[in-house]
Specification:
With 112 residues, chain A is mainly β. Chain A has no helices and eleven strands. In chain B, a hairpin with a 2-residue loop joins strand 7 and strand 8. The N and C termini of chain B lie far apart (38 Å). Chain B contains no helices and eleven strands. Chain B is 0% helix and 60% strand. Classes of the chains: A mainly beta (112), B mainly beta (118).
């Protein structure tokens, strides 16, 4: 099964609200990454959090990591219509030479 | 910085026809390279990875094959496409950055090819 699984699968909010997405994984990790994908296009790297970090910020993004629960969350504050996209967490696939495994993603719709 | 080129951006092919998708890398040497496929509304599934010229590992049994004839070239092929081969195909590269113990893997992504098999 997939290493990273996000929830919710879909999220619809109003502009200005915060959006929180969660990710769970199964094996030990060195780091966890969050990506964004617009309408089935290529992926954009958002943020990487290492296994020894608990929280990381980048602009309006806040990522937390709980290695004891094997989970991570991505918070987008003060959302904008341009944040509409699919968001994926990714972790390394063991023994696959730095390949990443992605969950099915959270589709975020920000209503203007 | 490293860049991945993929073409074409979109492709419509009949069932049973052959396929060749090419991915080329600029700005770095000896990257690990990966082919992922994304079915509609799903996440990315790793198909193949390569750690060097001529070295291919397959993650899932399938109708596709991959080759790496040059360090910066990665090709995804099929002799006869199936309807289930439809999807978004993404070429990804990876290099190691930094020094131990703080080194990490940096991934860089191509723009992808949307394949529709009819």
């Amino acid at each position: 099964s997939q290493q990273g699984e996000e929830d919710p699968q879909a999220l619809s909010i109003q502009e200005g609200e915060n959006a929180t997405m969660n990710c769970s994984y199964k094996t030990s990790i060195n780091n966890l990454q969050w990506y964004r994908q617009n309408s089935g296009r290529g992926l954009v790297h958002l943020i990487l959090i290492r296994s020894n970090e608990r929280e990381k910020h980048s602009g309006r993004l806040r990522v937390t990591l709980d290695t004891s629960k094997k989970s991570s969350s991505l918070l987008i504050t003060a959302s904008r219509a341009a944040d509409t996209a699919s968001y994926f967490c990714a972790t390394a696939i063991p023994k696959s030479r730095r390949a990443l495994t992605f969950g099915s993603g959270t589709r975020l719709q920000v209503q203007p | 910085s490293q860049t991945i080129h993929q073409w074409p951006a979109t492709l419509v092919q009949p069932v049973g026809s052959p396929l060749s998708l090419e991915c080329t890398v600029e700005g770095t040497s000896n990257p690990n390279l990966y082919w992922y496929r994304q079915a509609a509304g799903r996440g990315l599934q790793l198909l193949f990875y390569s750690v060097g010229i001529g070295q291919i590992s397959s993650e899932v049994p399938q109708n596709l094959s991959a080759s790496r004839p040059q360090d910066r070239q990665f090709i995804l092929s099929s002799k006869k496409l199936l309807l289930s081969d439809s999807g978004f195909y993404l070429c990804v590269g990876s290099v190691r950055r930094g020094a131990l113990p703080s080194s990490y893997n940096e991934q860089f992504f191509g723009p992808g090819t949307r394949l529709t098999v009819l």
